[in-house]
Amino acid sequence: MKKFLEKSVRWILTASGFVTSVVILLIIGFLFTEGAGLFGEPVIEDGYVLAVNKENPVSRLSAEEIKAVFDEDITNWKDLGGNDMPVRTFRLEDADDYFTEEQLGSQYEHAGEAIAGLVASDPGMVAFVPGTMIPDGAGIKLIEDKNISPGEVLGGKEWFPTATPAPLFGVLPLLAGTVWVSLFAILFALPFGISIAVYMSEVASERVRGILKPIIELLNGIPSVVYGFFGLIVIVPMLQQVFGLPVGESGLAGSLVLAIMALPTIVTVAEDAMRNCPRTLREASLALGATKWQTIYKVVIPSSMSGIASGVVLGIGRAVGETMAVLMVTGNAAVIPGSILEPLRTIPATIAAELGEAPAGGAHYQSLFLLGVILFFITFIINMCVEYISSRNRAKNR
Amino acid sequence: MEKIEAKEVDFYYGDFHALKHISMDIPQNKVVAFIGPSGCGKSTFLRLFNRMNDLVPGSRLEGEILIDGKNIYAPEVQVDELRKEVGMVFQRPNPFPKSIFENVAYGLRVNGIKDKAFIEHRVEEALKGAALWNEVKEKLNASAYALSGGQQQRLCIARAMAVSPSVLLMDEPASALDPISTAKIEELISDMRGKVTIVIVTHNMQQASRVSDKTAFFYMGEMIEYDDTKVIFTNPHKEATQNYITGRFG
Amino acid sequence: METPTYPKGYSSRKRRSQAVAFTICRLLSLLIVLVLFAILGFIIVKGAGVISWDFLTKAPEDGMTSGGIFPAIVGTLLLMLGSAIVAFPVGIMSGIYMNEYASRGWVVKFIRLMTNNLSGVPSIVFGLFGMALFVKYLGFGDSILAGSLTLGLLSLPLVIRTTEEALKDIPDGIREGSLALGATKLQTIWKVVLPMGMPRIITGLILSLGRVSGETAPILFTCAAYFFPQLPSSIFDQCMALPYHLYVISTSGTDIEAQQPIAYGTALVLIVIVLVINLLAGLLRKHFEKGLKMH
């Protein structure tokens, strides 16, 4: 009986030991299934087709071209490889401009034929209509629709998930936004982080350190929405004034807030590393006539470099994944930022802002999961870097 | 000629009275050994000569320590200037995680010497002085950690000597080494005798008798006896010294 | 060897650069302290006037332009409780397994790697995952249950790590002593190891609760309600939560004039929760350290 108890407890403990691994696998699994679904979605909005005149040589359009056409950025078919003639677009909402109610029928039952007739009679026409509406043949053809390709998503420069007829899921602007904000955050946080770590581990008395340490911990404990709120109320208007910006919500505001948020991580890890620098090394340096500061920058910092590096990388990880604060202060413009003073949008902020509105199971929804996958892998790689750095460090210290 | 004079030195770690009323003179360019059981204060005393104990919070010194007739605890004395004069070798080899060359050059660099040719010349000289040159001249840029323990300790001696101090403090420099490396260190000390004042702390009485000119015996924070090494090991005046060197305690 | 000629004045020059460097370090540290106090002070000063008994005990009214934040406070407390129920038992058991059972080597290394990785996963990814698994796949819908599970998974790595570290510091001799008396491994862990590690484990658990209380991203799509004035009646209800309420009020408010004070008040309550939790953990740690010294 006792033995059985011991055994079953052991079994339960073993099972719970692997719970984090299971969670990771589940995260990967669920995010992947949802995210990969995006590549099974058609480029043109589900259930709709693009109909053109049968004579029109163009039979294939990319999502970006479709958007350009319907935004009237492209107005001639020759830009799309067709004949030299103007593009005319037709959406279902435009039906009333072309047809009388009689022609369409009270329940739109004749709309399909009417539109087909219109397209058949106008060689420059492209119509965006539900696929079931259009009758076969009759002088029109449909633009070939393929599935959304990974290349379009990973290399796409436009994020426009709600665009019709063809939503754009280019992640580059979001990726760029994330990188910009995190990069600047670390640039701001680094000098502070190192200085504070040096001060706490080398300069401050035990008493001062005893005050600083809880303060840094507290800084780490403040919820990110509170940082976001503070950023929104204080930092954003301040930046707007200082730089004379049209809007204060900008990459800079995001990186300032993120810098404060990443700081505790950098300080804690770097300080730990510096305190672990052996006393004998410090003594050797001092005994040669070096000052304390010379000892710090010639011996202590170099020998705790890997610890400092993992602190910085962890800080980057924290910045990359931070959602709420960034969402609240960066202005969320999904464009590749030209400068840090412009609004931009990060991957986590995009997920948080858009998932609520994206219909479950649709391409938009799936694209947000794909962003989740990308984010997961970025942080996964960052974590692996930290593991690598610290394992190398352990090997060195042995 | 006296190089170091300690005058009625008392030293405290907080409430603990670590050194009690010690006075002694250390002659120039001789080797003086401090012996005694662990915790007797010999290392503490040694570390007063380059003010290494300044680092210990709550420590306090009474009395004077003079080097070349100047009180090294006088307010106008700068510790880094002092430590340039008074080098130190520690119990365990503690090379920096840098190349062999940079280890030896470190003391010159932190004291403001930038002349590359001079530094190179000096590093070579110091390594030769520590009988290490032939072993490392091909790999000066290799990490100091690639050396064996004994080589590392000789590197540390070279590092200390490169600054050309007039006093070298050695705190049990061979206690972490094997017998062959220990013999090499002792050989080095003999080579340096007459060129630099050496104060060596050791728990190894044979070592003290082999390398030193004078020996001081410490016990419970007091200096019990200080005399020529020959006298201490053959005809000590105090009973405690006698007991210690004959191995009856400690 | 001839004495090298050291450059004159270098000694005072390097002392000067030390003074400059230390001053910079000191100033930057001071600056960060000031930043913290600015954030805290700003929210405390602006929020203190808003806090009243009614604010703490009433539901939002008039399209969230007046009234209190009671449902959000209750919601946050429920989520903290829920996540604790999810994470603490599993996390502690996992920590015990890591330190007491797992044979050294690749198993421990692998689990630790996975735990570290999980702790690095951004909270918004947890939110996505919680939505996909709990809300959609398991059909819990937007609910306290789904939110608690998501937050629980999020705090799991912290709980595991604290447990492991607390147990690691208990000397092996104590285990061997118990085993030598004929106790089984399980008895040793239950009667000796766990009680000794408990104070530190509890400190860690409290800190993980603090983290959970402020998380927004994971509950965005799994639980949090924009407006849900009555209290939840089952774990399948949605609930309001302080951090989400603060987010909503400060970004998508309809009437900024009227809502800003509510935002300050909400932020203050959040900060107070975090402060109290940190203080509690600090006190506990100190208390424990004192107890340790007495041994």
Kindly summarize this structure in a few lines.
The complex is a heterotrimer of chains A (398), B (250) and C (295). Chain A is 62% helix and 6% strand. Chain A contains 17 helices and 6 strands.
Salient structural properties:
heterotrimer; A: 398 residues; mainly alpha; four-stranded mixed β-sheet; two-stranded antiparallel ribbon; 6% strand; B: 250 residues; alpha/beta; six-stranded mixed β-sheet; four-stranded antiparallel β-sheet; 10 helices
Description of the structure:
The complex is a heterotrimer of chains A (398), B (250) and C (295). Chain A has 398 residues and is mostly helical. Chain A contains 17 helices and 6 strands. In chain A, helix 2 runs antiparallel to helix 17 (363-397), helix 8 packs parallel to helix 11 and helix 9 (206-221) packs across helix 11 (251-275). Helices cover 62% and strands 6% of the residues of chain A. With 250 residues, chain B is an alpha/beta fold. The model of chain B has no long low-confidence stretch (mean pLDDT 91). Chain C has 295 residues and is mainly α. Chain C contains 10 helices and 2 strands, in the order ααββαααααααα. Chain C has helices at 10-48, 53-57, 70-101, 106-120, 123-137, 144-168, 172-180, 185-214, 242-251, 256-294; strands at residues 60-61, 66-67. Chains in contact: A-B, A-C, B-C. Chains A and C meet through helix 1, helix 2, helix 8, helix 9 and helix 10 of A and helix 1, helix 3, helix 4, helix 5 and helix 6 of C.
Furnish the topology, listing elements before pairings:
The complex is a heterotrimer of chains A (398), B (250) and C (295).
Chain A: H1 2-17, H2 19-36, E1 48-53, H3 63-70, E2 88-91, H4 95-98, H5 101-104, H6 111-121, E3 125-130, E4 140-142, H7 150-155, E5 159-160, E6 168-169, H8 172-203, H9 206-221, H10 224-243, H11 251-275, H12 279-287, H13 292-303, H14 305-321, H15 324-329, H16 347-354, H17 363-397
Parallel strand pairs in A: 2-3
Antiparallel strand pairs in A: 1-3, 1-4, 5-6
Helix pairs in contact in A: 2-17, 8-11, 8-14, 9-11, 10-11, 11-14, 12-13, 14-17, 16-17
Chain B: E1 2-13, E2 16-27, E3 31-35, H1 42-46, E4 59-67, E5 70-71, H2 79-85, E6 86-89, H3 100-110, H4 116-129, H5 133-136, H6 149-162, E7 167-171, H7 179-192, E8 197-201, H8 205-211, E9 214-219, E10 222-228, H9 229-234, H10 239-245
Parallel strand pairs in B: 3-8, 3-9, 6-7, 7-8
Antiparallel strand pairs in B: 1-2, 1-4, 4-5, 9-10
Chain C: H1 10-48, H2 53-57, E1 60-61, E2 66-67, H3 70-101, H4 106-120, H5 123-137, H6 144-168, H7 172-180, H8 185-214, H9 242-251, H10 256-294
Antiparallel strand pairs in C: 1-2
Helix pairs in contact in C: 1-10, 3-6, 3-8, 4-6, 5-6, 6-8, 7-8, 8-10, 9-10
